[in-house]
Amino acid sequence: MKNWQSISDETACALAELQAAAGLCRGQILVVGCSTSEVGGQHIGTAGSAEAARAIMRSLLQFAEDTGVRLAIQCCEHLNRALVVEEETAALYGLEIVSVIPVSGAGGALAAQAMQDMQKAVVVERIRAHAGLDIGETLIGMHLRTVAVPLRLSRRSIGQARISAAKTRPKLIGGPRAVYEK
User: Is the CB of residue 125 less than 8 Å from the CB of residue 141?
Assistant: First the structure.
């Protein structure tokens, strides 16, 4: 039996550190990819855990409530890494909603949990998030804005899953005469 409270606490700590490094503002998007199989020490896609998903989702929702950051929960490759967002987020960012309901076996345990826990959850195919948290090497990079900056968090895992994080920044354009700071 896993200690689900410690998984929730580890997630909260990683989110706090990511927020300190990325400085996300209210309304910006955080994409989260998660293999609950990896959290439990198993190979990705082999042992999804609703309990781990609930523990992680609890911390994600608290983070969103505290910061005003909008969540985008990445589905697994069986749904082409589509994302669960709140309907309001889809409307605000002009995201096209698609028809599918993520379940543990096709979408992943965290995406399935997000469908239950988020306010008016919908699924979209694409997003350009301002930052990301990848729990279990699920490959979230396709959902980040163009210039992603890796963040090295002091916490390197949640449960048994390796984690990585990134923030994004605007592109630096111009040439030798361009000025980038006021």
Answer: no
Domain segments of the chain as ranges: 4-169
Alpha helices in the chain (DSSP H): 4-22, 36-39, 50-67, 87-93, 109-117
User: Which pTM was predicted?
Assistant: 0.94
* pLDDT 10s digits, 21-35: 999 999 999 999 999
161-169 and 97-98 as β-strands: parallel, antiparallel, unpaired?
Answer: unpaired
Q: Alpha carbon of 116 to those of 14, 36, 101, 107, 163: distances in Å?
A: 23, 16, 10, 13, 24
Sign of the Cα pseudo-torsion (56, 38, 127, 102, in order): negative
pLDDT score recorded for residue 1: 39
CATH class for domain 4-169?
alpha beta
In three state form, how does the secondary structure of 6-56 look? HHHHHHHHHHHHHHHHHCCCCCCEEEEEECHHHHCCCCCCCCCCHHHHHHH
Q: Supply the mean pLDDT for the chain.
A: 95
Residue in the structure block whose two tokens are 């543990």: 104
Q: What are phi and psi of 83, to 5 degrees?
A: -135, 140
Tell me the angle at which helices 4-22 and 50-67 cross, rounded to the nearest 10 degrees: 40
176 by DSSP, 3-state: which? coil
